[in-house]
Amino acid sequence: MFNYMVEQRLDTTFHALADPTRRGMLATLALGEKSIGELAEPFSMSFAGAAKHVKVLEGAGLVARRKVGRNQLCRLNARPLAEADKWLRQWEQFWTIRLDRLEALIAEDQQKDIGGRE
């Protein structure tokens, strides 16, 4: 399945995604590069507060930061999201198989009920 390093990256990614502010920041970055101040603005938070969130996103590899003059510009790195998506898709298959099986059992049961009434 996945190796230990991938599992650690997934833990870090899901931890970063667990916070709604960080998810909002990622959504903003999906539209293009932004400064930390621009990321803070919609959340009415201080630069320091936004910088802490950016640091978590950066630690998860979801954000790359670069300095331009006095500004720190952030951009989205979606690669960790692709790993998370791959991991989630295995569970989608797991549940699809089981739900298909349940649907078949229900249909079979309903056919028995219809057959028994005639």
What does this structure look like?
There is one protein chain. The chain has 118 residues and is mainly α. The chain is 69% helix and 12% strand. The chain has five helices and three strands; from the N terminus they run H-H-E-H-H-E-E-H. The chain has helices at 4-17, 20-29, 36-40, 47-59, 79-117; strands at 34-35, 63-68, 71-76. The longest helix has 39 residues, at 79-117. The termini are far apart.
Summarize the biggest pleated sheet. Answer: 3 strands, antiparallel
Spatial ordering of strands, largest sheet? 1-3-2
Number of strands: 3
Cα-to-Cα separation, first versus last residue: 50 Å
What are the segments in which pLDDT stays under 50 over at least 5 consecutive residues?
none
Q: What sequence of helices (H) and strands (E) makes up the elements?
A: HHEHHEEH
Q: Radius of gyration, Cα only, in angstroms?
A: 22 Å
Number of helices: 5
Proportion of residues in extended strands: 5-15%
Question: Mean pLDDT across all residues, rounded?
Answer: 90
What level of helicity do the residues show?
55-70%
CA-based shape: elongated
- Tell me the structural class: mainly alpha
What does the secondary structure layout of this molecule look like, with pairings?
Elements: H1 4-17, H2 20-29, E1 34-35, H3 36-40, H4 47-59, E2 63-68, E3 71-76, H5 79-117
Antiparallel strand pairs: 1-3, 2-3
Helix pairs in contact: 1-4, 1-5, 2-4
Notable features of this structure?
single chain; 118 residues; mainly alpha; 3-stranded antiparallel β-sheet; 5 helices
